[in-house]
Structures are given as C-alpha cells and as structure tokens.
C-alpha cells in the first residue's frame, strides 16, 4: 500500500541522514543542530515564535548542507532528503516542547473531539448531501484508519502523509464512482462532504494540535501543491465541524437540537469531564508563568493541565495515551536524574570548605563505662572532634596531639584501661579506633 511505501521511504531517508551525521566530517553540522535544540530550553514556549525559529533554522541548515563537503555535487533531491531527515530529527527531539504546547490548543482539541463524539450518535451521509454513489463503507473505513494514524507519529512530514493517504483514498473513491456511474463530480463540492463525514467517523485524537503542528513545523517549501490542497481541506473540515449547526446540514432544526440533546444525555459523564477540563485549562492559562520554561523544554503551567493523567483511572486511558505517557515518563526520569546530580554536586561543594585533611592522634585516659559511643559525625571541626570525644568525661584530659594516618572507621568503646584512641577527620567524617588492649 502507498502508506507502507511512504513509511519505508521516510525511514530510509532518516537513517541515511543519521549515517551522514555520524561521519566525523559533519561535526560542525551536528554542533549546530544540537545547539539549536538546546536553545529551546532557554525561553518560554510560544507556538508562533517557535515555528518561525524552526523555519529559519531549516533555511540556514539547507544552505549549510548544500555548501558542505559531505554533499559536494549532491543533487537537489539528495539535499531535499537530507532536509527531510533533519526535520524529523529536530522535531522528534522538540516534540514534547512544541506539540500541543499551549492551553488554547488543548482546549480546542477537547472541544473538537467532544463535538464529534456527539455528532457520531446521529449524523448520517444524507445530512451532508453525500451522493449515494459515494457511500462506500469499505473506502470510508480505510480513509478513517489512515487519519487515525496521525497521532502515532512525531515528525510533521509523517503526520502530513497520514492526511494525504486519507484524502487519496477519498479521491480514488470519487474517481472510481465517476468512471463507473457516469457521475459528474464537482471537485471540492463532493470531496469535502465525504472528508467531513470520514473525520466525524474517525474522530482522530488531538486533531487541532496535529494540524497546528504540521502548519508550524513542516517545511514551508513542502507544504505546497497537492499536500497544501489536502491539508487545507482537512483544516476546513475541522472548522466546519466546530461551527456546525442545524443550518449547516440537511436536517430540520428541531430534529437537530433534539438529537444533540439526546447525545448529551447519553454522554453526560463525558461532557462533564470535558467541561471541567476546559475550565481548568482556562484557569491555568491565566496563571501561566512565562519565565518558568527557562530550565525545561516546555512551558510549565499551573493547574491540572500540566498533569492530565493524575485523576485518571486505568479504564480511562486509550491506546493513543500510551505514547504520551511514555514520553512524559522519560521526561520525568531525565529531570529527576538531573535534579539528583545537581543536589549531590551542591552537597559536595558545600562540604568542601570544611573538608580540610586533618589527621591526629588523641591519647586520653578513661574509666570503664558500659556505654558505646559512635564518633561518626558530619561537618565537625577539629575542636568539635575533641569536645565530642571528651563529652561526659570531663576528668579525662587530652595528654597529647600528634599526627597519625588512620583509614578505618570504628566505634569506640571505653575499656578498663588507659585507651589510645586514634581519630581522623576527613571530608566531614570522624573515624575513631581504640588501639589498646585490655589489661
């Protein structure tokens, strides 16, 4: 199938790009790419601004690749393949930062999905004036499956291919119907209603965010011609669904309102969850701290929209949630690891000023006591070591203080004799060892 061949071609292009980037001669390109990706962590997420930055980076890198020795004498097609690989690599790395990065995008996703969910309960092909000759369930199902794949990919090109494959199935349906039934087609007048119906039947997840992602991050030089035509039609279909009312369809207004009301009652729990989620997103949008992304790869937001699965049960999750959960898990682990490293380094740096390499032997006279004292403390000075050692033994004077080298860490237990206690203070740790034997 065309979708499979496109996927295979995309993978081959991407792996060829990675192979070239592993060549030592491409070190300057690799540095530029990594530097650009890291730069996104220095400022707050802004879809329009981010999209502009990415498009400018594409243009700069295309010039660099054309002038690079690794592509000396390369054809336009070879350079284009390199750029396709670059786009996939960069946008896969930046996906968690750039996809559905604003509360407004998530809000429209929920509104669209909920509206479609209601329409699915009663909308029929005749409501959209779809000719009988085009009512081919097998073709519609194939188109739906192609469109539902859109959320399984991270690269803009691959998401766009899902849209194109869906539209090509519909286009082929129109062409076949035209040849077999002498049905005179009127282009978009027949194409768009079928696409709208397929979209409603498919209800692809995060439709708005996927379309926005393609629009912002697909290379503008590739969003032209056939791709632009199909993409524009899908955007139009989404807009039509959001604004859809009885006047948009071939249906009595009372019947439409009754059908929508019945659908809301049937899906009351779902509608309540969607309404609550929208309110939370609106609230969190107003509380957003624009500077909080200076450390992370995406804009930190207050409210539940930052943790969309916190209140979910296992039964609430869908297959489409798996990829986002895995991505979130990896991000959490990465941040946790970085935080642990930073705290550990901070602890070491604070301990270093006190970690003077003090080594000494303190010889003391003690009397027998049935207690055990542990001299493993942190952050003590040498004077505190002596005070700790003599604590509770005021009559036991320090006789002398001499250099010593002790590498053991032991408990000191007073015994019926004069005890020679070797003490070492190093890096905030006291090590004590009784060197005497009982008499």
From TrEMBL:
Q: Name one GO molecular function term.
A: guanyl-nucleotide exchange factor activity
Could you state one GO cellular component term attached to this entry?
Answer: endocytic vesicle
Q: Which Pfam families match?
A: DUF5601, VPS9
GO BP, one example?
A: vesicle-mediated transport
Q: Which SUPFAM superfamilies match?
A: VPS9 domain
> What sequence ranges are listed for the domain VPS9?
106-250
Which SMART domains has this protein been placed in?
VPS9
Q: Which InterPro entries match?
A: DUF5601 (IPR041545), VPS9 (IPR003123), Vps9-like (IPR045046), VPS9_dom_sf (IPR037191)
State the name under which the record lists this protein.
Answer: Vacuolar protein sorting-associated protein 9A-like
